[in-house]
Structures are given as structure tokens and as C-alpha cells.
Write a structure and sequence with these properties.
Blueprint (H helix, E strand, L loop, with lengths): L4 H4 L5 H48 L2 E3 L5 E3 L19 E6 L4 E4 L12 H10 L1 E6 L14 E9 L5 E9 L1 H49 L17 H49 L5 H32 L7 E5 H18 L3 E6 L7 E5 H18 L5 E9 L3 E7 L7 H4 L22 H11 L3 E5 L10 E7 L5
Parallel strand pairs: 9-11
Antiparallel strand pairs: 1-2, 3-4, 3-7, 5-6, 6-7, 8-10, 11-12, 12-14, 13-14
Helix pairs in contact: 2-4, 5-6, 6-10, 7-8, 8-10
């Protein structure tokens, strides 16, 4: 039974993590962007506010005049004229005039008994710059009956052509600016969570749609068992990574199905091949035990039993070799292998068998500048060469000839060719001779064998990165077959 962590712990699912990641990145970006907008808004409105205050102060300062003797005079109603508060309609302005020495000279009536303080820092700044802006916090104005909110204070130097300069201070309420800032903060406080919630819902919907093919693949994969390997996962139409994943999984299932089929076929064929000689042995043993036998009959029985045991022994050896090469390159003992020496060693071992059948073995090595060496498992390569030459001897007629050639090829490769003068391989069997336990009609019931030799040869060549092919055209009247194997030449260190 399959289990899914996503079912028991939904917060750890890929879809949930994607939504959290998307909302997190989007949320941080949105907050930073909102902060940037807020700062730009406040900065621009502060500049506009200060510009209005400055223009208003200049307008008020223009109404102040000083006599030659330093007497301060004002145009009528200069400090009380209501139209001068037009930039600050939400509150009234307060005005006070000082001498440059810091002595209060005049103030607006709405100040009553309160004063706008001219600190030494303010006086120094205004004398150096001509004007100075300052925000008066609410806590500094707490003692004042009039100042109930923060005010923006501009200290401005009135410079006349006479010997006397004066300083005018104008304080205006920041109610409008603070109100706009408060509204903007409130807007962001409500809108950002709403936008993030909408983004989360959208991200959840998009991720669900995007991962729907993955969920379909998961559900289908859960239903595929060893007995249902013919099923495949659905492939989405969109040409994206999920489609590639589905195609890759289907290709994997193809290989698994083929491997399971090959394994089942191999086990069935191996069981059949092993069962036949065992059945023959058991039948002959039962027959011999049924009554007394002569010495000749006993000798014939032992000869037959020996043949069956040899067949079984060879079958088991072939199966062990096949299992070893099926395990892949990791099971190989890689070393330098001299192909010419291996061929000569195998020829010497098979010469007796060839002589018994009156088959002539000939060997030809092409001249080379360097030894014909490859890298691989020496035992397996020896088994490969032995299989090919033994097959050639087995299928050659009496007085026939088997030629073994070793030559160089381009691109640092070596070619081993084993040619016989047998009946050849029909076209219908040419693509099947490397299958396990396959035997062509020409050889069946005429020549003994397990049907594993060429299958083993092919697997040995494959795990060593080589190629094997057969050339045979009996339908053209030319007898014989030629098996050609390409080895990779061992590179010099």
C-alpha cells in the first residue's frame, strides 16, 4: 500500500510550500514598494507644505518695515489679516517677530500669552541660511493652551537695507499633512493584507492547476504494480518539464516492463532447458533400476548420463556468466587484455575439438605498431572469444575451415572476425540469434547447445562498450557466417 506524506501533513506539500513562497516574496516586495510610495508621498507633500509656508512667511515679512531709527512698523492688520492663512485652511497661523539678538518685538494676537521660542540654535541657523524649518512635537507644546497639534515652524530673516535685521517666526498646524499621512498608513494597513490574501488564493489556484498533471501522474503511478506494467502515466499536452517527467517515467516503465518480461521469459526458458536433461536422467535411471542390465547397457547409460550432466554443467556455467554480465560494469574486474594472446589461448584449447571434427582453424593478425590491447574483464572476454570460435567449429561441416582475424580499425578500435563455412543464418533468424535460448531451424535437433552462447557474447560486448554483428547470406548461395566484434583499444597512459 502506498502512503503520501502530503495527505497526513498538508502544510509540507509542494503546493503549500509554493504558495507560501510566492506570497512571501510578493508580500515583501509589496511592503517595500508601499514603504517607498509612502516615503515619496510624504517627502513630496512635505516639500509642498514647506513651500507654501515659506511663501506665506515671505508675504507676511513683506508687510514688516523698519524705520531708520530701528522702529518696527507693520502695514495695517498685517498680523491679523485672515486672507494670509489661505494655505492652511484647517488651522490658523501664529506669528512672532524677534530682533536678531533674540528680543521679542511683536506677535500675533492669537498667541495670547504664549511665545514661539527662538533658540540659539534656530538663531544661528537663520543668520547663516536666511531661513530654517523645524517641526514642533506635541510634547513640546503640551503647556500651551493653543497648540494642541504638531506645528511646522519657519524662522525667517528679514533683511532690510538699513542697519537693522529682524527675525520672523511663523508656525502653522500640520493637521492636513498628518491627516494625509494617517490616511495613507490606514490604506496600506488594510490593503496589503487584502492583496496578500487575494495573492494567496490566486497562488493556490495557479499551483493547483500547475500541479494537477503531477497529481495525475502520482495517482496513476500508485496503480501500477508488477502485474500491471503495461499501464503508463498520462502525458500532459503542454511541452514543459512535467511532460518531460511523464515521458521519462513512461520510458522507465517501458524498460521495467521489458526487464520483467525478459526475466520471466528467462526463468521459464531456463526451467525448461534444465528440466529436459533432468527428466532424461530420471527416466534413464528409473529404466536402469527396473531390471538387471548388461555391462554394455550400463556403459551406454553412463555415457548418456555423462552427456546430460555435461549439458547441465555447461548450462549452469552459461547462466552464471549471463547473471554476471547482467549485473553491469560494476561487477567486472577491469584490466588490460591482450586480444591476440587471448585468441591464441582459445585456439589452443579448442584445437582438439576442431581436429575431432576435421575442421581447420586458421588465425591471422594484422601488423600493428602497438599491441592489440583492450580494457575489460579478461575472463569474460576469453569466454566471448571461446563462444564465437566454438560456435563456428560446431556449425562448420567436416573438412571445413574456421578463420579468426584480428585487425585494426579507425578511431582506436580493434576488430575480431570469426568466419565459418556452415549453412549460414536465414534472414528470418538473423535478428533473433542473440536472443536467449533462441535456436534457428537449421540447428534445432541437429546440433546440441543451450541457446545462450550468442546471448552471452552480445551482453559481454555491450558491457565492454563494443559492438557485435553478424554477416550471413545463405539465400544468395554463399555458405557460412561471419561474426564481427569491435573492441575499444586501450589508450596509452
Amino acid at each position: 500500500m502506498f502512503s503520501s506524506k502530503a495527505e497526513s501533513a498538508p502544510l509540507t506539500s509542494l503546493r503549500t510550500r509554493l504558495v507560501f513562497l510566492f506570497v512571501g516574496i510578493f508580500g515583501v516586495t509589496l511592503i517595500l514598494f508601499s514603504f517607498f510610495l509612502y516615503e515619496v508621498f510624504v517627502s513630496n507633500h512635505q516639500k509642498e507644505f514647506d513651500a507654501a509656508l515659506y511663501n506665506y512667511t515671505v508675504d507676511v515679512a513683506s508687510a514688516v518695515d523698519v524705520s531708520f531709527f530701528g522702529e518696527l512698523t507693520l502695514t495695517p492688520n498685517a498680523l491679523t489679516e485672515s486672507e494670509k492663512v489661505f494655505p492652511f485652511a484647517l488651522g490658523e497661523a501664529f506669528l512672532q517677530i524677534y530682533s536678531v539678538q533674540g528680543k521679542p518685538l511683536a506677535r500675533s494676537r492669537n498667541l495670547s500669552n504664549n511665545v514661539l521660542k527662538l533658540t540659539d540654535e534656530d538663531r544661528t541657523a537663520v543668520l547663516a541660511q536666511g531661513s530654517n524649518f523645524k517641526t514642533i512635537p506635541a510634547k513640546e507644546l503640551a503647556r500651551s493652551r493653543i497648540f494642541s497639534k504638531n506645528y511646522r515652524l519657519l524662522t525667517y530673516l528679514i533683511n532690510r537695507s538699513g542697519p537693522f535685521d529682524y527675525v520672523v517666526q511663523v508656525a502653522v498646524p500640520m493637521v492636513l499633512l498628518e491627516h494625509e499621512k494617517s490616511n495613507l498608513i490606514t490604506f496600506f494597513s488594510f490593503s496589503i493584507p487584502i492583496v496578500l490574501l487575494i495573492a494567496a488564493c490566486g497562488g493556490l489556484y495557479v499551483s493547483r492547476k500547475a500541479l494537477a498533471p503531477v497529481n495525475a501522474i502520482i495517482e496513476k503511478s500508485k496503480k501500477i504494480t508488477a502485474t500491471q506494467l503495461s499501464q503508463r502515466v498520462p502525458v500532459p499536452a503542454a511541452k514543459d518539464e512535467i511532460r518531460e517527467l511523464a515521458l521519462t517515467l513512461n520510458a522507465l516503465l517501458d524498460r521495467l516492463e521489458q526487464a520483467f518480461y525478459s526475466q520471466e521469459t528467462f526463468i521459464a526458458d531456463a526451467s525448461h532447458q534444465l528440466k529436459t536433461p533432468l527428466s532424461i536422467l530420471r527416466g534413464e535411471i528409473d529404466l536402469m533400476r527396473s531390471k538387471e542390465r548388461s555391462a554394455q547397457e550400463m556403459a551406454e547409460f553412463l555415457h548418456s548420463a555423462s552427456q546430460e550432466v555435461n549439458y547441465l554443467s555447461r548450462m549452469v556455467e552459461d547462466l552464471l556468466i549471463l547473471a554476471r554480465v547482467d549485473a553491469g560494469a560494476s561487477s567486472l574486474s577491469i584490466q588490460s587484455v591482450r586480444l591476440d594472446e587471448t585468441v591464441l589461448e582459445v585456439i589452443a584449447r579448442l584445437d582438439r575439438i576442431a581436429t575431432q571434427k576435421a575442421v581447420k582453424l586458421s588465425v591471422h593478425f594484422s601488423e600493428t605498431q602497438s599491441p592489440m590491447e583492450t580494457e575489460g574483464d579478461g575472463d569474460l572476454i576469453r569466454s566471448l572469444v571461446e563462444n564465437l570460435i566454438e560456435n563456428a567449429v560446431k556449425y562448420s561441416p567436416e573438412q571445413g575451415k574456421v578463420s579468426v582475424t584480428l585487425s585494426e580499425m579507425p578511431e582506436e578500435r580493434i576488430l575480431l572476425a570469426v568466419e565459418d563455412q556452415g549453412r549460414g543464418i536465414p534472414e528470418s533468424s538473423r535478428d533473433k540469434i542473440f536472443d536467449r535460448f533462441y535456436r534457428s531451424e537449421n540447428s534445432r535437433d541437429k546440433i546440441s547447445g543451450s541457446g545462450l552462447g550468442l546471448a552471452i557474447a552480445k551482453r559481454i560486448v555491450e558491457v565492454h562498450g563494443g559492438k557485435i554483428r553478424v554477416e550471413s547470406r545463405p539465400e544468395t548461395g554463399v555458405p557460412g557466417s561471419c561474426f564481427k566484434v569491435e573492441f575499444r583499444r586501450r589508450m596509452k597512459a
